[in-house]
Amino acid sequence: MATNPVNLGSSSIDVASIVSNLVANKRSAPDAKIAADKQTNATQISAVGNFTSSLTSLQSAIKALTSGSAFTTTKTSVGDSTILSAAADSTAQPNVYNVVVNQLATSQKTTSGAFPDSKAALGTGNITISIGDKSMSVDIADGANSLETIRDIINKSKDNPGVTASIVTGTDGAHLVLTSSVTGKDNAFKVVTSGGDGKLSQLDFDPATGTPTVKAQDALFTIDNLPASSPTNVVTKAIDGVTLTLSKVSKNPDGSVNPTTVTITNDTSAVSGALGSLVTAYNAFISTYQQLTKYDATNQQVGALIGDATINSIKSQVSTLVGSKFTGNASGPTSLSDLGVSFQVDGSLKLDTTKLNKALADNPRETQNLLSGDNGIAPKLDKLITSWTSSTGILTQRSNNLNQKTKDLQDQAADLDLRMQDYTDQLTKQYTALDAMMTKLAGTSSYLQQQFDALTASK
User: Fold this and answer.
1) How much helix, strand and coil, in percent to the nearest 5, is found in the chain?
2) Which residue, of 44, 120, 133, 417, is most buried by count of CB atoms within 10 Å of its CB?
3) Mean pLDDT of the region 42-67
């Protein structure tokens, strides 16, 4: 940008205007070229960015096909959901299982005898509560031995092995209720008191000899007549990849057994959705390509990447792969068209889900090989896109070069400003000197005129 020179207030010539006009005239051509180059470069950056984005969106859309996860998605159904529920992960295999729940897992619960009220003193001594090799031991002293105090001491003990204490008050009085926090027969607890006045012995309990309010027990069930057990009602290891949550024993009101089924099937909707995503993303990619490479003679519009060899080559490779024949199947589908994916007149794709579902039903393994196998369409396409968009890919290098050109153009503009400032200073100096000389000459001319006029008057 030109800097206006200082106006010297000359009475002979307008130095500032002359210099400004000369500088503006000299820089107009390079200014216009830099501006045009900046605009062209910015358009290219945007175009390459949009094209790259459409490719990465396509890559994201086929992720479930590339990894094959679309084919490992399963769904479960249960014959009687009041008995149990089931959930399957990607390792579960399609199958049908008959399950009979004979017993639910429960936590041990014991209830003490009745005391007048919750503030009544029980006695003094030591209480030890143990579950397996874990135990807690607390001393109960006189003055801090009410039912409420003992409840709080048990619950707050840092060594508590997993037992909660509560108070239940009935018509006969207050009871201390102890409950294991974990189900299963191995989590039964034992209460032993000692020392003191001996009155705490009312709380003693041994699950081996006593009868608890609720017995600690494992869940017992059969799967296809094979007996199984679990310390909890959430069973994760009975069937590979399947979690069973047991809710009720399999018995009818008359006492007869009521087995239920757990059915695991492949979720074909996952494949249909994944292939639909491929079609949608591919169509968006084609639309972007067509917009960037179009030539509209009527409206005199030209795409930013028209005639670009790199862009044309990438589009051609993608379209060729999508429409290619797959040689990995001896029978069954060998192309996307066999799965209901067909090319339209405008270059886009269209999915026929009816045809896809038939292929999945008739040739599930071959369909998976075509889409997600080691040499399948999705993995191949994924590798191609990565090769173009990675840090060393041709599109990334192209973007880097365009961004560097932006910096170069900014440097050119800054350099032009410096050159124009030097030119301004040079012109200002020259025209200021000319102005001074012309002012001096004007003064001399005025003096000579005065002398001439005086000489004429004397004659």
Assistant:
1) 45, 25, 30
2) 44
3) 96
